[in-house]
Amino acid sequence: MAPRAVRLVIRDPDLHRSRLTSGFRLILAIPHFLWLAGWFSLAALVAIANWIATLITGSPSPMLHRFLAAYVRYAAHVVSYVTLAADPFPGFTGRAGSYPIDLEIEDPGRQNRWVTGFRLLLAVPAIILADLMMGFGTSASGGWGTQAGGLVATVALLSWFVIVARGEIPRGFRDALAYSIGYSAQVNGYAFLLTDRYPNSDPAVYEAANAYRSDPIRLTVDDDLRRSRLTTFFRGLLAIPHLVFATLWGLAVFFALIANWFVTLFRGRPADGLARFLTRYVRYTTHVWAYTLLIANPFPGFTGLPGSYPVDVEVEAPVQQNRWVTGFRILLAIPALLIQSALNTLAFVAGVFIWFYALARGSAPQGLRNLGVYALRYNAQTNGYLFLLTERYPYTGPSAGWQLSLEAPADLPA
Amino acid sequence: MWFFAASRLWSSSTVPDNLRLPQLDPHDYFSSSFLDRSAAYERFLRIDFVLSAVALLVVLGLYARHGARFTRESAAGRVGTGMLLGMLGFAFVWLSQLPFSVAGLWWERRHGISRQGYVESVVGSFVGLGGQFLFICAAIGIVMALAGVMRRRWWVAGVPIFVGLALLFAFVQPFLMTDLHSLRNAKVAADARALARKEGVPHVPVKVEKVRKQTTAPNAEAVGIGSSRRVILWDTLLDRRFDRREVRTIVAHELGHVQRNHVLKGIGWFALAILPTAFLIALATRRRGGMYRPEAVPVALFVLIAVQVATIPLQNIVSRHVEQEADWIALETTRDPAAARNAFRELAIASLNQPRPPAWAYALFETHPTIIQRIAIARAWEDRETGRSPG
Predict the structure, then answer these.
(1) For chain A, which residues lie within 8 Å of any Cβ of chain B, measuring from their own Cβ?
(2) Do A60 and A108 meet the contact criterion of CB atoms below 8 Å apart?
(3) What gap in Å lies between CA B31 and CA B38, rounded to an integer?
(4) Residue among A212, A139, A210 at smallest CA distance from A178
(5) How far apart are CA A347 and CA A219, in angstroms?
């Protein structure tokens, strides 16, 4: 895989946040908003000059490249500050190495003139994805659309409550924010001609934002990225029987869930039979969504059997659970459900992009596939939490790690 | 037994035995320009249909031969894989029919019959394919589950199940229809109530379906069984091209279908047809391991569609038989042959229906008696009533 020209770096992994500055974060950021808006206006003009220069000479002008790189870096600093991904008040210059969440941007190199000529057009899918990730129109080029429920907007809002209460941001929240900011920065870099390498949405390649974890509910992926053009074209329709079946199965799950809640509340652990039934459902819906969103290729079975599908769910056997956490499970799951909704939107859009790509190439792009896997993993963990299969809260960060394309560290606990 | 049942079903729909239809000349009822125009219009659609049927059989034949290779696209068990192969078969059918349906639409738009846009039509049929996928999955699920238990004799239990499902579908179909509203024209509504009472089906409602945005062609149908029975008039019938007496005739015709339980009898014919078809499928799929194996599904699809295409003339004979009975009941109820003649004439003009098609087209395409036959039925009824000899 080619190295990325715009790389996310987390220079300070500290998760502590000042309650005071976090509480007033939006107000404190007002000078940065004004400065960013002014800078963006100038950067847009400079980008046009850079586009012409790159078209003529085949590589960006070093001076314009420096200016635009500083803007992209500064935008990442500001977004990190506003979304609580980082704590300190950022500087106004976008200087490299000046902020805990930072970007490393390569020096200007040669770029393909065709890719340069059609840059803005080519960037549209990435801009859409970045905007959906951000959720409030702060991504590429200062925002091309607005959407309230994006991953960053949702996680930032939830982070605010957590930080005000505990003075610390959860690692998963910070990493989800950092991943989205990193992707958005790549999109900015691509749109502003800092590089001609297409933004990569693969959560696994944002090493700085990845955690190596062993959760009780995990996803395994054994997919070769091949996609049948025929089944891809009809994918939405081919999934209909499964969606109908999942809905019918869901009715039974509703009653099983209520029964399981009572059992877990009184016994302290779920009933084995009910847990197996609910696990099957979690696994089955994961198979179905993997198929529907082109995250996997083969038509899934209707049984949710373990090991029966390339994108599969492993669920550990039920153990003793805290009765308080069980009693208030539905309320406690609300933040996870909000994040799940934001991730599902991303997965859906990724699925649409994969559809076009797979029809043309007969394969799925790894980055979009792995973004879908990230959403599916979170889905499975949220459903498992809601169905009382585990009391471990869903992990928000991109923990795709070794399950996808990164090698696990040697000292990783089993 | 089978022939006895078929003969009972056939004889349960009757027009008077000694009815002799007068020989009529279409030129007495239609202008030469209309006859030429309708002949040209229908000729194109017939050729389009024949070509589409050939393409359908070729595509399904190839699919029967090579379709088993798509099992590699499935991670499901035998039933799930069978469902996938069934859906892919329908997907190929859709793809193979697409050019012909677009050509047909182009022709209908050119003649002012259809108002559907091309994109709307293609997207609509694509979405409709989802419903077909559900249907084929259910059917294959049943057949393969039965084959799991009964192996080669699955069809013995399969036929009653499919007949039961057909009954269920016939019952619920009226409730699935959207864009229906009650008759807003008070006079037509009063006529419909009076006709329903006269035909002994007083509780059968008459509804109107909005199709004006899709087509200019008028139509009506009787749907449902038992308490779900109803008559549906397309709103293109009520756009003043047909006068009140003509609409009465058409409503009486549809109520005739209801009175004579034609939907139920249609399911009877379906039961008679599905029995040999299922047996034939069981026979044809033996080399692929029978319907127990998903690899047999493409062969089963080919046999099913081939039987359907091959028996079109027979299906049309049955259909024309019951339509003639409904025409007769309408005449007996309204006692207005002039209105019937005018209604049939207007139907032909509005739909560009060729009044007397060639014999081969009559056998292959005409689900109703030809327009000139229907006018002749009205004339024959009139002759019987007045005691005149036909001619």
Answers:
(1) 228, 230-231, 233-234, 236-238, 240-241, 244, 287, 297-303, 308-310
(2) yes
(3) 11
(4) A210
(5) 15
Q: Is the pLDDT of residue A31 over 90?
A: yes
- Residue A142 banded pLDDT, cuts 50, 70, 90: very low
Q: Provide the 10 A C-beta neighbour count for residue B365.
A: 18
Q: How many residues does chain B have?
A: 391
Higher pLDDT, B293 or B240: B293
Within 8 A of A298 by CB-CB distance, chain B residues are 72-76
Question: Rg for chain B (alpha carbons), in Å?
Answer: 23
Name the helix (H) or strand (E) containing B206.
Answer: strand B206-209
Contact B84 A238 (CB under 8 A): yes
B287 contacts B336 by C-beta, under 8 angstroms:
no
User: d(Cα A180, Cα A133) in Å, to the nearest integer?
Assistant: 6
What's the ipTM?
A: 0.84
Q: Read off the pTM.
A: 0.88
Angle at A337 between CA A336 and CA A343, to 5 degrees: 90
Q: Half-sphere exposure of A310 toward its Cβ, with a 13 Å CA cutoff?
A: 20
Mean pLDDT confidence for A226-236: 96
User: pLDDT at position A409, please?
Assistant: 47
Is the distance from CB of A29 to CB of A75 less than 8 angstroms? Answer: no
At B15, the pLDDT band (50, 70, 90 cuts) reads confident
Helix (H, G, I), strand (E, B) or coil at B204: coil
Average pLDDT, chain B: 94
The DSSP 8-state label assigned to residue A397 in this structure reads S
pLDDT tens digits for range B150-177 = 988 999 999 999 999 999 999 999 999 8
C-alpha angle A304-A310-A311 in degrees, rounded to nearest 5 = 70
Cβ contacts below 8 Å, chain A against chain B, sum to 64
Contact A339, A151 (CB under 8 A): yes
Q: How far is CA A96 from CA A70, A72, A101, A305, in A?
A: 8, 11, 10, 50
pLDDT attached to residue A144: 43
Indicate the residue of B70, B76, B126 with minimum beta-carbon distance to A302.
B76
Q: What is the mean pLDDT of residues B235-250?
A: 94
Determine contact, residues B229/B177, Cβ cutoff 8 Å.
no
Nearest to A217 by CA among A146, A275, A302, A160: A275
Q: Which is it for the CA torsion B339, B340, B341, B342, positive or negative?
A: positive
Residue A139 has pLDDT above 50, yes or no: no
